[in-house]
Amino acid sequence: MITYKKIIIIILTSLVCYPAAALERRDVTFKIFQFPANMIPRIDGKADDWAVVPNEYVIGTDQLVDDEGKWEKPDPNNLDVRVRVGWVKGINRLYFLYEAYDNYWDFSLPGLHNDTFEVVVDGDASGGPLIDKGHREMWIPEEVGAAAAKDERISDEEANWAIHSVHAQNYHIFTPAEGKDWTLAWGVQPWIKELPLANAVCNYDFKPGEAGKLVLEFWITPFDYAGPEGPARAVESVLWENKIIGLCWAVIDYDDVSSGGKNNGFWNLSRNHKMYGNASHLCAFQLMPLEEKFRKPIEAQWSFKVLDMDRRLVAFKDLSYGNITSWKWDFGDGTTSTEQHPLHQYKKAGSYVVVLDIEGPDGKSRRSKVWDVTVK
Question: What is the mean pLDDT of residues 57-64?
Fold first, then answer.
């Protein structure tokens, strides 16, 4: 006989044994292109801003599968998609260009029945379920059964509000969206699809039931926490170079408005279609550094942190790029250092002009910051 105490022990054991994060397709890491700060793409439904993105960043129809075996691989003559993803250093946004040809675009109804580009993002790659149903299926051992383990004191609605897309977000993006919002933010936080957290423009010239090409350009903000109470307590996912995030998408194709709500194709970048509700089934995407052609041969850059304001102790960190052989710091108080990452203690309160000069085989560079470093 399984007692309530045994149920708790089994659940806790599964929590300990289950890995914190696991992503599908261990054999491939997809790349996210870094746009230079002076080349941030305009959200205008045009692809010209994306011409700088090399072909190696393009993810096409050939990468999509149906793990359930319900549909044949899409014929490019009937459905063909190309996706590129980008980011900009210092901005916690993911930019997307979705280009698709379909021989029958279905988008005349106001509900969920719509050709769809479904995107799921987990900004810290923490993995795990993002809908309540997936959460219970994941953590409740089969021998216990969901019904036996369910705590009747917590309603389905309360459980849903506690987890649905809170740590990873699901976007059902309508392609195209005619007479309705550009996407269903599937969860308890519809505010994530609005400016200033997201934006989208779709460009097409076909009518429902016709063939044609669609260009969808959009950006979203990934969140480590996005609760139902709104953006006040939300925590954006911080993006940095070479970071791995969880990301995936599916293409859902409808070819007949009279099909009774059923689609006739559902293909995934993941090898598990349940990625829609479990971030552990997403794919690994890497936030790439700038391509070499966008970089200067050598460029000075640095940051700092006040470690102890009472002692006026400041840590400086070199963030320069290139083949560097020497560093010279001028702390603005008459003292200098040739260390790469120096610590410096100021004797007097004040605001200082700090300068870093670097040098290497490819030249010299300087970075000055005026009054950023202030101690009291």
Answer: 97
Q: How many residues does the chain have?
A: 376
Give CA–CA dist 368/301, Å, rounded: 9
| Token pair belonging to 70 | 């319900």
Residues 73-92, mean pLDDT to the nearest whole number = 95
Q: Output the six-digit token pair for 326.
A: 């020497």
Q: Across-strand partners of 119?
A: 171, 249
208 backbone φψ class: left, alpha, beta (φ>0; ψ -120 to 50): beta
Per DSSP, helices labelled H in the chain are 4-17, 132-139, 146-149, 156-163
Q: What is the pLDDT of residues 250-305, one digit of tens each?
A: 999 998 756 556 677 899 999 999 999 999 999 999 999 999 999 999 999 999 99
Buried b (16+ CB within 10 A) or exposed e, 87-96: bbeeebbbbb
β pairing state of 79-88 and 59-60: antiparallel
pLDDT of residue 257: 59
| Residue 205 confidence (pLDDT) above 80 | yes
CATH T-level topology, domain 20-128+166-287: Immunoglobulin-like (2.60.40)
What CATH class does 296-375 carry?
mainly beta
Instruction: Give per-residue pLDDT as tens, 328-351.
Output: 999 999 999 999 999 999 999 999
Read off φ and ψ for residue 57, nearest 5 degrees: -90, -10
**Domain residue spans of the chain:** 20-128+166-287, 296-375
Cis preceding-peptide flag for 361 (omega within 30 of 0) = no
Strands 283-287 and 30-34: parallel
Helix axes 4-17, 132-139, angle to 10 degrees: 100
